[in-house]
Backbone:
């Protein structure tokens, strides 16, 4: 049977991308309910009007995506999960170890214990991109340690953050000052060495998320992940400079061959470095891109590489849909 699908937070960047992809993939739904808070009801998503989530009866849905504020997930997800599969993109469920955390292309086996309803958490976009690349390399040589610097797009901060980058850019080119509201300082023509709040140890929430989520998704509870997360003036597409150390010797050629086997990855050959950028790849968000792959000349059993991935579509909306399709296909 075709599922009855609800998208909560449909006016958000992820919600909008998810609805667009539902239409592009021509995924059959018995019903499609686009829901959001009352303040967003004037917005249209893919020419469809929104309904008020507060008035929605979740017992009428078989599959519910939560894409908006985490407060919406906290308020409605448990009730929805009594009747439906709940796939949470908001981050509200990521700290719950009783809820499986899934990247469809890495650990889909976590879905096997879910029957016809229940909660599923999706990791953050940066963790999705990183684990999708690391998983095949781990199977080849065993991961021992990961050092990563992330250069994260402003869309990770939501629609208002994107609007601020656009307005600040225009203002500064006109000789005016930047507002600096979204990130506490200007983002246009700048790099901010902080994503989310910083704790007493000097570690940001995003850096801790990368550590915890990579460990969970890769099923490596003691993996060392040393991360620095920075925000850059890019609309879409996170970039990563990765240094990975392995338990066994690994040659560049065999790493490239292993990565080529994953249909979700595109390995950019030498000489294509200028194309391995968010600006060049934002129009083709159906892959995670890997390049600059090379041996670390200072340390044995280590590789350096560069990763680019669309954070809203590929790493959030597409992952949510892929998880849902696995659940729906398995139920038939």
Residues:
């Amino acid at each position: 049977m075709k599922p009855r699908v609800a998208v909560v937070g449909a006016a958000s960047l992820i919600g909008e991308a998810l609805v667009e992809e539902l239409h592009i993939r021509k995924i059959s739904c018995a019903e499609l309910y686009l829901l959001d808070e009352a303040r967003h009801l004037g917005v249209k998503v893919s020419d469809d009007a929104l309904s008020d989530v507060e008035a929605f009866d979740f017992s009428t849905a078989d599959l519910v995506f939560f894409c908006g504020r985490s407060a919406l997930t906290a308020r409605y997800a448990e009730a929805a999960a009594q009747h439906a599969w709940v796939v949470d993109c908001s981050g509200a469920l990521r700290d719950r170890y009783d809820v499986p955390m899934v990247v469809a292309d890495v650990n889909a086996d976590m879905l096997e214990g879910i029957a016809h309803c229940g909660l599923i958490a999706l990791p953050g976009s940066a963790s999705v991109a990183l684990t999708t690349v690391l998983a095949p390399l781990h199977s080849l040589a065993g991961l021992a340690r990961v050092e990563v610097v992330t250069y994260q797009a402003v869309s990770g901060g939501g629609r208002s953050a994107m609007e601020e980058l656009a307005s600040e850019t225009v203002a500064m080119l006109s000789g005016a000052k930047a507002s600096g509201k979204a990130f506490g300082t200007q983002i246009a023509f700048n790099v901010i060495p902080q994503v989310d709040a910083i704790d007493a140890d000097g570690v940001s929430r995003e850096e801790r998320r990368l550590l915890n989520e990579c460990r969970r998704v890769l099923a490596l509870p003691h993996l060392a992940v040393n991360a620095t997360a920075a925000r850059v003036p890019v609309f879409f597409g996170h970039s990563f400079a990765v240094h990975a150390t392995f338990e066994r010797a690994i040659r560049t050629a065999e790493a490239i061959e292993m990565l080529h086997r994953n249909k979700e990855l595109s390995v950019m050959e030498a000489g294509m470095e200028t194309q391995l950028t968010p600006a060049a790849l934002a129009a083709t968000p159906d892959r995670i891109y890997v390049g600059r792959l090379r041996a670390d000349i200072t340390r044995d059993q280590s590789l350096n590489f560069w990763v680019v991935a669309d954070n809203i579509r590929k790493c959030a909306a597409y992952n949510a849909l892929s998880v849902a399709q696995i659940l729906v296909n398995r139920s038939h």
DSSP finds eight helices and 14 strands in the chain. Residues 24 and 247 are 42 Å apart (CA to CA). Helices lie at 13-24, 70-80, 125-141, 159-173, 205-218, 252-260, 278-281, 313-331. The first strand starts at residue 4 and ends at 8.
